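#struct-pred
JK: can someone run the complex with iron/sulfur cluster? inputs below
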Amino acid sequence: MKNYSEKLARRLKKNPRTKVPDEADNPILTVILDTYHVFDTGTRMELEEEEFKRQAKIYCSDGCIACCLRPMVPATEIEILGLWWFLLTRVDSDTRELVIQRLLARKESSECPFLINEHCSIYPMRPLACRILHVFTKPCDKEEYIYQSRREDVWVPSQEIGKKSAVVLLDYYGFKSLKDKVKAYKEGFIPAQSRFMPDYNWEGLIKIYREGRRG
Ligand code: SF4
Ligand code: SF4
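RT: done, structure tokens with the ligand placed:
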């Protein structure tokens, strides 16, 4: 694992994350952006090896949406805050209103409320759960249950990547030492903190947003 850690550290050094100005007033943003950066960098690193091994390319990409039509996406509170920040600051107002309407009506459809015009409206800040599944050979069909139909085409990043990104995310929950973070990760602290996306109090966030706009 030492070689693996060194390889990932070299990658991260070579491809540092671009800071966003809002981070100066919002340290939570730094934690979640760093978490996604570690996860995505590690995933890309492993995926290159997998693609080489299979001599094939992965199909998943922004705009490939079958997996967003009936997703079960667990997310932690910090992931929700991260994507909410993105929705309020980086998404145009028409799309934002569409998402809000879909969030308020989320119990009426199995589609993810963030799916707008066949595109994930918060793609750069989608939760970790939306970054895990990768599919080879061809994109998923709309009605396909990929683990049942062609398990051999499914690829997911290693647990090591999960651990490395969890170590960053656990800053949000007040864990200080690496030892405590690894212990929390192994004991399932993050899944225990997660809820499925529709179960969050979106009405509360939307109310705060609307009241803020009224000043
Ligand atoms: S999991 Fe399937 S539907 Fe989702 S992005 Fe990948 S290929 Fe597309
Ligand atoms: S958050 Fe984005 S990627 Fe995840 S299920 Fe929703 S639309 Fe799909």
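RT: quick notes.
Residues 27-54 form the longest helix (28 residues).
The radius of gyration is 18 Å.
JK: thanks, will look after standup
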